[in-house]
Amino acid sequence: MSIFKKIFSSEKKESLDKGLEKTKTSFFTKLGKAVAGKSRVDDDVLDNLEEVLVTSDVGVDTTLKIIERIEQRVAADKYMGTDELNKILREEIAGLLSETHRGEATDFELPEDKRPYVIMVVGVNGVGKTTTIGKLAHQFKAKGFSVVLGAADTFRAAAIDQLQVWADRVDVPIVKQKMGSDPASVAFDTLSAATAKNADVVLIDTAGRLHNKVNLMNELSKVKRVMQKVIPDAPHEVLLVLDGSTGQNAFEQARQFTKATEVSSLAVTKLDGTAKGGVVIGISDQFQIPVKYIGVGERVEDLQVFNKFEFVDSFFS
């Protein structure tokens, strides 16, 4: 059976299809113009396709990689028809994603041997970082895991208040201090509380400013060091949250944060409100960091575990 014939959860798939609708409509409108009047994939079609991918926020480097792969296939089949382009693109994009996403999570699951499992969440202000933490807390709790939140973004009072709102909504404990407190101290207290409660997962919010990368790097390094006084291998995961609707700006944010700290997974939010969903393909390819979660709507259920085959199926169906 083809990987694309797999039957996905209907509710999740409908949400994903709807969330990618703007991206899909924009992409295939451009693709239709790129092959208009052409029956065969030639140099003109490939040039047009390159422009389609770049303007769909797939990114220049990833676009060139896709075009090169298609060129190799065209060279092997001199009379490849434009009607095959959709299928070829689908296969090549799935192949690219497969190179980054090996053995990815299929659900909101945690490693058996790490309790509490500590996730440090990073990202600039406004990308949906705190909302993503709240939705993750809901999803983990729905799976039967006990969750503790840590409000280590002490730079903004609004960040602490917003995380408190989510803690109340999801009904999970939160550890916080007053605005201006040492973020590392909050992280220390959070891990201490989580250990005492035998919690399954800890979600640590961090400050989202990028105006001085050295300060950001120092702060995140200090938070890590202090957490390791409680749990030696914490954090087990550093999750970078990116706003998919910002397109190429999301690439720059990923570039800055991967320089400032060791990022192990990505969450791409707000895909439902934009035609820039191609950013998921480009970012996962260029940074070789797996996209673990995607946000395709406002509901807590619309934060989904990213599945490359579901994504490609929704994108091309």
Defining traits:
single chain, 317 residues, alpha/beta, eight-stranded mixed β-sheet, 12 helices, 8 strands, 50% helix, disordered N terminus
Give the tally of β-strands: 8
What structural category characterises the helix and strand content? Answer: alpha/beta
State the helix count. Answer: 12
Rg from Cα: 21 Å
DSSP strand content: 5-15%
Descriptive report:
- It is a peripheral membrane protein.
- It catalyses: GTP + H2O = GDP + phosphate + H(+).
- Its EC number is 3.6.5.4.
- Keywords: Cell membrane, Cytoplasm, GTP-binding, Hydrolase, Membrane, Nucleotide-binding, Receptor.
- It is found in: Cell membrane; Cytoplasm.
- By secondary structure, the chain is α/β, with parallel strands linked by helices.
- An eight-stranded mixed β-sheet has the order 3-2-4-1-5-6-7-8, sandwiched between helices.
- The chain has helices spanning 10-19, 21-34, 43-55, 60-76, 85-100, 129-142, 157-170, 183-196, 213-227, 248-260, 279-287, 308-316, and strands at residues 117-122, 147-151, 174-175, 201-205, 237-243, 265-269, 291-295, 303-305.
- It has twelve helices and eight strands.
- α7 links the parallel β2 (147-151) and β3.
